[in-house]
Each structure stands twice: as structure tokens, then as C-alpha cells.
Design a protein that fits this description.
74% of the residues lie in helices and 2% in strands.
Length: 443
Amino acid sequence: MTVQDASRSPSFGEAVSVWARVALLSFGGPAGQIATMHRILVEEKRWIGEARFLHALSFCMLLPGPEAQQLAIMIGWLMHRTRGGVVAGVLFVLPGLVSIMALSMVYAQWGRIGAVAAAFFGLKAAVLAIVTHAVLRVGRRALRNLVLAAIAAAAFAGLVCGVPFPAVILAAGVTGWVGARARSRYFQPALTDTDASLDERQRGAWRAAAAALALWLLPVAAVLAALGPTSIFGQIAVFFSKMAIVGFGGAYAVLAYVAQYAVERAHWLRPGEMLDGLGLAETTPGPLIMVTQFVGFIAGFRHPGTLAPLLAGALGGLLTTWVTFAPCFLWVFAGAPFVDRLRTNRSLTGALTCITAAVVGVMLNLALWFALHCWFGRYFVVVMTGALAGLRVDLPILGSLDPWALVLSLAAIVAIFRFKAGMIPTLLGCAAAGVALHVFVPH
């Protein structure tokens, strides 16, 4: 049996083409990207089993940085060692890098382009349907009993009420650890396969981790030595390297930190521009944290020094992307052999079983967040009192509902659930509908 506990093992060339397909279809932030990988790799290709997929996802949720890209690196490593992880991780980022770079140039020069924004508007509706479908399918497999379902519900409720993501994951892990130590039947993982080749993989993965560390830090050191820490490129290299270390909880957890620094302290962007960048990242393929490339581009464009503004912006965006994503390869390659070996440890796999259940709640929370931001334009904040004092909940203003967004979302849900439409037809149909609405419906 090969490492991916699946019915067949793909060739490396076949895997490359499928990773490119996954990358091009990875819309909708982490929930949408996890849904895409699950649908293609687990359900369609059957290259990795449900249990191994969920185990890898639970591990990636514990790491700083974009969990969806790290999941791609992890699965790529499981299938084809270091080269598999590198190809999966690079291809996962590449479409977003190209599209955000192009749109950043357009934005910096001319502002918003109506037809492009309209196509993205339609894509959001399709992504919401894909995410909803994935939450249901993953939840059906991961929540095998009422206790795990309760953990997922608690994770969802905690995130809605503003409990920090790391606290939710830590609580789930501790619950699973204690339950497994007590030999409760509710916390037994559905993981039975092993990988006899893991010992020989371990050394190669750690060499790859050392290479990733060098590839991350050497460019930072070169920029600081050549231009100094006060240059715009030195500031970008240092700030986003720090973010890569402390960015637990994925893009949604760190965007407030990025926005506060880039808008309020460094003054790289104006307040509304951060929201525009987030909109670009939400509706283009690739990790949502790719919004940092937009931030780096605008920072370089506004502070070009002796360079042409567009060139400085492109260099700022590329440097930001490099120091944001290079550490992801370090975290995965350093931990993957160790974590995969722990599949035979009852206590630790019990902890990961509960983290997997909590991940279902996280995915549901992300789906709700995405839906609300797709359908509504304005929100008000409710501050809790009593036992929940200090917690904040953002609630939509009903009058800001966009009826066309709701209609497109419902149409996409019907297409996927009722008519079993594939991702590509649904995405293309909704994008075309968005453009048609822009052309024919008065604004």
C-alpha cells in the first residue's frame, strides 16, 4: 500500500497536471480551496483517502500561514516526496500571483474595472455553493458520533462569538488528548493505514526544510544589506517575514494585523484600498493571504525611490509573496514526517481527531463569513455583556442585501446539489451571469 491510502498511485506528470487544475480552480479563500482539493483528490481521483486527507488538514491547521497551500504541500509530499510538495505548493500560488499582480497594475493605474469586478461578483456565488457542498461532505465523514459533532458546533459558535482561532483549535486538541487517554470510544481515529517508506522520507524532508529556510532568509538578508531596513523593500521583507511566523489561524486571523500596520502605521495604503485588495484576493484563484501581494505592490508603487513606480510595485509585490509563502514549505517539510508517524500514537491521533471535528466548524464559519460578505454590503457590531463580555459579533444590515448575489448563489447551489454540475461549468456560468448583470441591469 502506498502512502496515500488510495486505490492507485499517480505518476508525477499526472500529478503535476492535476495540481495545476486545482490551482486554477482554487477560488473562495481557504474553505473553497480545501473544498476543491477534497473534491478532486479524494472524490474524483481517489489518490488520497478521506482519513489521510483529514489528518493532513488537521496538521496544517496547527501551522502559521495559509492552511490550504500547506495542505497542498503536505499532500504533494505524501505522494511524491519533496518534489511533489514543491510542485504542489508553487502551482497552488502561481495563478493567484499572476492574477493579483496584473490586477494590482490595473488598479494602480486606472482603479476598478467594471467588467472584471462583475465577473468576480458571479464567481463568488459559485464558490459559495462549492464550499457548502464540501462542508456537508467532509462533515458527514469526520463527525462520526455526537461528541465530535458537538465539538464542531462548539468550534463554530466560538468563532462566531470572536474566540481566537488558536484557542478553538487548542481546546479541541486537549479534549481529544484527554478523551483518547481515557480510552473513550468517541475519540478513536479512523486511521489504520501505515507507510513503510516513511523512514527514508524523513531525512529528505528535513534537508528540504533546511533549503526552504535558506531560500526564505537569504533574500531578506540581501535586501537588508543592500538597501537597509528603512527602505520600502527592507520594511516589506521584515514585516511580512514576521507575519509568516505569527500568522496562526490563516488569512482571516492575520488580515486585521496586516491592515493595521499597512494602513495606520506604515501608511502604505488608504483604508478603502485594503478592502479593495481583499476583494481581489477573494475572487481570484489562490490563497486569500495573497492580498499581501497587493499590499506590497501598492507600497512599492507609492514609494518607488529611483525606480519606475510600476517596476517598484512589481518588485514589492514579488518580495511580499516570497517571504509570505517560502516559510510554508519550511513548516510542512520540517513537521510532515514527524506528524505522519504520530498516526500510530493513540493520544495524539485522538487530539487530531477532535481538531478535525473542529475544522468542520471552522469551515462552516468560513462559509458563513463568505456568504454574508457575498450577500450583504454593510454590518453593525454587537458587543456581548455578562459572561461573554467583550466578545464582538458582526451582524449584517438587512437593508444592504444584494438580491442578485442571493439569486446567483441559490442558482449555483441548485446546479451543484440538484443537477450535479461540475465546478468548471458552475464557475463559468456564474461568471458569465455576473458580466450579463453588469451589462443589462441598471446600477
